[in-house]
Inverse folding.
């Protein structure tokens, strides 16, 4: 049995923090895991900026509610789910993900949780586990599943390297060029073809 593990932001939906940065006019919030490999460091940086600018969880959720999946993403997910299993492995948060998951047809999602005060201030975050994406792939392989993983950022490397077959999708060349052993794709059709060849064998 097979399963495709995908990152969420930058692969299926736009980067939430980049969209929020545009709406608020705060360029510092546009930093993502493409820029900072240390996710905890990045999130603490973001939380401090939110506090400084008196921005709250509902402000972010309002922006997320206006976002749509990338063109072709929903059709891609539907096609994959008709042929094999798919799990979204993301460093996003449950408080962010629901509107986007609805627009993608509610695929299975493993992600993290924000710590939020009663007034909506984001005061911290709880990671599901360290190296959660890599650990999820390891657990799936322990269930005798063959795993393909695809993502776009430094925080996806663990799962891409651990998977039976891995690929970059719409990753900056600065990242994909560091790891030329993994193919890099820009179109969903090409990623689907890779999945069919390497995972399903068709």
């Amino acid at each position: 049995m097979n399963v495709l593990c995908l990152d969420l932001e930058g692969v299926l939906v736009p980067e939430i923090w980049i969209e929020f940065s545009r709406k608020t006019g705060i360029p510092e919030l546009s930093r993502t895991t493409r820029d900072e490999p240390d996710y905890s460091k990045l999130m603490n940086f973001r939380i401090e900026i939110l506090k400084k600018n008196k921005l709250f969880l509902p402000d972010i959720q309002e922006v997320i509610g206006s976002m749509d999946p990338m063109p072709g993403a929903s059709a891609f997910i539907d096609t994959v789910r008709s042929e094999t299993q798919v799990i979204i492995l993301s460093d996003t948060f449950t408080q962010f993900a629901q509107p986007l998951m609805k627009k993608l047809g509610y695929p299975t999602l493993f992600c993290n949780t924000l710590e939020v005060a009663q007034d909506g201030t984001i005061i911290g975050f709880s990671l599901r586990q360290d190296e959660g994406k890599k650990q999820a792939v390891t657990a799936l392989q322990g269930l005798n599943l063959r795993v393909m993983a695809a993502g776009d950022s430094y925080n996806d490397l663990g799962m891409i390297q651990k998977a039976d077959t891995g690929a970059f999708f719409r990753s900056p060349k600065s990242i994909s060029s560091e790891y030329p052993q993994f193919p890099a794709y820009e179109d969903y059709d090409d990623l689907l073809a890779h999945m069919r060849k390497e995972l399903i064998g068709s």
